[in-house]
Amino acid sequence: MTDLDIAEVAHRAGVPASTLRFYEEKGLIAPTGRRGLRRQYDPGVLERLALIALGRTAGFSLDEIARMFAPDGQPHIDRRMLSAKADELDRRISELGVLRDSLRHAAACPAPRHLECPTFRRLLDAAASGTVATPERRVPERR
User: Fold this and answer.
1) HSE-CB of 27 using CA atoms within 13 angstroms
2) What does the pLDDT look like over 71-86, one tens digit per residue?
3) To the nearest 10°, the Cα dihedral for 67, 70, 74, 76?
4) Checking phi first, is residue 119 left (phi over 0); if not, alpha (psi -120 to 50) or beta?
């Protein structure tokens, strides 16, 4: 199969060409060369981009994803890292379940004002203490 031009890779992978250039800067993908001004990629880059997309969907950073590839570019995925991410997702799912249930209660709560509802007050206290943290506020675990 012949090399694919950057526009074709972007189209097939469903990402803008700017994302491909950014991934290239981060060392996640590499072009095989150029045809005129346009970057060319080996068709195998599509599988690599799919792995990157899967990693991003699971919540891995680009640096973590970069470590999932051996120097020769082949996937070399650390199973302990996958297990740790699955544990992190389990914790997040549990937190989100509590948050969902609290919001449903607050939406149907018979208290005259939300601040008078004990369940809503507990939710506020949890948010203030960081127990119910958004992904952006969450402090990474130390390993």
Assistant:
1) 11
2) 888 888 899 999 999 9
3) -60
4) alpha
pLDDT for residue 33:
92
> What is the pTM assigned to this prediction?
0.73
Pairing state of beta strands 4-5 and 38-41? antiparallel
For residue 35, list its beta bridge partners. 38
What's the one-letter identity of residue 95? E
